[in-house]
Amino acid sequence: MRQKITLQIQGMECPNCAMKLESIEDRLQGIFRAEASYHKAILKVEFEDEVISEDIIRTEISRLGYQAV
Amino acid sequence: MMNILLAFVTGLTTGGLSCLAVQGGLLASSLTGQIEKDLQQSSTQSRQRSRKNQPANSKPQLAKPILVFLLAKLIAYTILGLFLGLAGRVLQLSPYMRAVLLIGIGIFMLGSALRMLNVHPMFRYFAFEPPAALRRWLRRKAGSSAESPLLTPALLGALTVLIPCGVTQVMMAAALATGDPLQSATLMFAFTLGTSPLFFAVAYFTTQIGARLERYFLRFVAVVVLILAIVTIDSGIALAGSPVSLTRWFNQQLIGAQQPGLVDFQPLEDGNSSAQVISIRVQNYGYEPALIRAEADVPTRLRLISKDVYSCSLAFTVPSLGIQELLRPTGITEIEIPPQPEGTRLVFSCSMGMYGGVILFEDV
Question: Does ipTM come in above 0.85?
């Protein structure tokens, strides 16, 4: 089923980080859309929960050097 | 000439650091195409070499894409300079408008510095965030570059024009203030050229301008931008003619022991009365004397004497009277000032508010 989550992100230091976080859209299968906002320090992710879980998304975010809280 | 040199040196030092912090990520992404291509090639070559027993060479060839990135950036900013100069000419900024612009940019820089120092989340709004669609497009361009690795650095280099760093924004304001397309383009060219060596060195020797380096630079840049912000706001305040400003304070400290300006009287052209003539020596680092006592209620003529001056002190302004005069590097320029009532403090300064002085009109 299609899911939509909004994660608060720690460790974003400039607008470039938003672009880096959004790259999970290309890195992980099952993500329809990832949209980050440096201003609000959030990441909105739309994904297919039968293909990918929220935990995997959180792990990938940590791997990029940020923390989803 | 002095301004161009100053722009180059600013680029070479603070500009390079500041731009690297803002645009380093874009440069790093633009290089991924080349790295991927080199890795692909080296793995193919190593398979071939293993058959021929030759050593593998897996070092990415990054010099070329970095140079292409920097060249594209240089061209883009020079063109931007051209447009800024044209805009400045059309707008014909008055000293007050320039003061407002300087104060605005100063506040923006102050916010940016506080944002970089993570003082409060609200300062995040001082950073320009490209729209999501543009970010996606940039990311796709950076990712799909394996086939044409030089196109991406060229494109992303040119696109850095959309994310100018704090110091670049100051330079853009200075370019706008020139009001001359050629001068403005040269200024931006010199500045961007100045930022290039640091970009090249860091990008080349570290390959990955990752989060660690960005953070290290960000702290240093934040402090430099903070200082520049204070200087910029103060220049704006000084240019607006405020009696209280750091520039004024420094000037007063410097001129504390100085003799008041030279004032003599000369007949006016109509021969009926005389005007007091105030001689001011225009120098590369300011005006001398910077404190002048003059007689109230009589016509006044400012005689500005310059000799081999190439700094912004040539752009002489008296904000409260709307006087703007671009002086010759060497020569004498005379400006007529109507009689001023007793107690008037007439502030004059260069067009950027960096150098200035004051004429006190008193009853003699």
Answer: no
